[in-house]
Amino acid sequence: MTIRVLTFGEMMMRLKTQGFERFSQARSFEADFGGAEANVAVALARFGCESVFLTVLPNNPLGDKARGELRSRGVHTEHIIVRDGRLGLYFMEAGVNQRAGQVVYDRENSVFSTLMPGALSWQASMKSVDWFHLSGITPAVGQNSADLSLEGMQAAKNAGATVSIDLNYRSKLWNYGRSPQAILPDFVRRTDVLIAGRDDCQHMLDITGDGDPDSDAYFSTLTQRVMEQYPNIQQVAVTIRQTLAAQNYVVRACLRDASGFRFSKSYAINHAVDRVGTGDAFAAGLIFGLGTQMTKREALEFAVAANCLKHSVSGDFSDASIVEIQQLMKGSVAAGRVVR
Predict the structure, then answer these.
(1) Are 53 and 296 in contact (CB under 8 A)?
(2) How far is CA 1 from CA 47, 193, 292, 296, 325, in A?
(3) DSSP three-state, residue 105
(4) In-domain check, residue 262
(5) For the chain, which terminal residue's Cβ has fewer other Cβ atoms within 10 angstroms, N or C?
(6) Confidence band (pLDDT; 50, 70, 90) for 246?
């Protein structure tokens, strides 16, 4: 079964220091592209979905390169708007051992952030779309982007598409005078599938669970409260990361729907190549699983395995195939061994 998924958000150029250099040491940067919704679109195309990405790119060689990168990975780009302006950037310094990684955004006055509400033909973009996805990063860019995102969610609801949002709290972006707690509830009331990191519900919706934030009971009560407060939500999934050091983690996830609550298996990651985009890999895996009628358990396990594998791939985009993810789910891949 193939589904057609539309994602909407800003695509940026990613400029990363070489290896584990700090910004203060950098003399050159590795140039790539990324952005939460673009990452989801690329992963879904890798799974064989009809993956459509909607954004605004600048009318210059950088915009051309960004669009070409999407096309080369199987993403449909026919609805992308091209206008004069600048491409948003983000700079990245990888963390190592006890030193945290850092991100610096340069997105102000980008061609995406200056697009006004009403500028997009949502009806044309939603044609034959089964699923619409965006993240909480996009409404954090500015009021214009928030209004456009809400237009998209409402158009998707009107078109009968399933709507998902990954809350994705980014403290460095909410700086235009509106708090996420003031904006996001309107988005969540139009959402069918809610995805969040372990602390996103608190930061974005002011909802917490009971007890120790690392306990199973915390996530059970957290997801229950989300569904009680927003009865329109059909499923809520939360990714859970235990950080041991900058490259060492234990990852798992949980999912609640009307049929009950469940945890995934856990994966120990002892040397993460790149953790950026891992949540987007999870979101893509969950969309694919739920959209292709896997059981809720299978969809959750597929999503967390996709998250795990993304830690082994540099850059924003995931490159894991369905077969690789399914092998990991079954435990049929011996970690670190060469497949011959």
Answers:
(1) no
(2) 11, 20, 6, 16, 18
(3) strand
(4) yes
(5) C
(6) confident
Give a yes or no: residue 167 inside a domain: yes
Q: What does DSSP say about strands 4-8 and 131-135: parallel, antiparallel, or unpaired? A: parallel
Instruction: Please tell me the number of Cα atoms within 13 Å of 3 on its side-chain side.
Output: 23
Q: Which helix (H) or strand (E) holds 102?
A: strand 102-106
Q: Which residue has the tokens 């695509």?
A: 11
Residue 339 maps to a domain: no
**How is residue 298 written in tokens?**
């299978």
Return the exposure string of 142-159: e unless at least 16 CB atoms fall within 10 Å of the residue's CB, then b.
bebbbbbbbbbbebbbeb
CATH number at residue 287: 3.40.1190.20
How many independent structural domains does the chain possess? 1
What pLDDT does 247 receive? 85
Q: Which domain holds residue 169?
A: 4-330
Residue 338 lies in a domain: no
**Contact call for residues 41 and 35 (beta carbons, < 8 A):** no
Model pLDDT for residues 13-36, shown as the tens digit of each residue: 999 999 999 999 999 999 999 999
| Residue linked to tokens 């699923």 | 131
Residue showing tokens 């990714």: 239
- Percent composition of the chain: helix, strand, coil (DSSP 3-state, to 5): 35, 25, 40
Query: N- to C-terminal Cα distance for the chain?
Result: 31
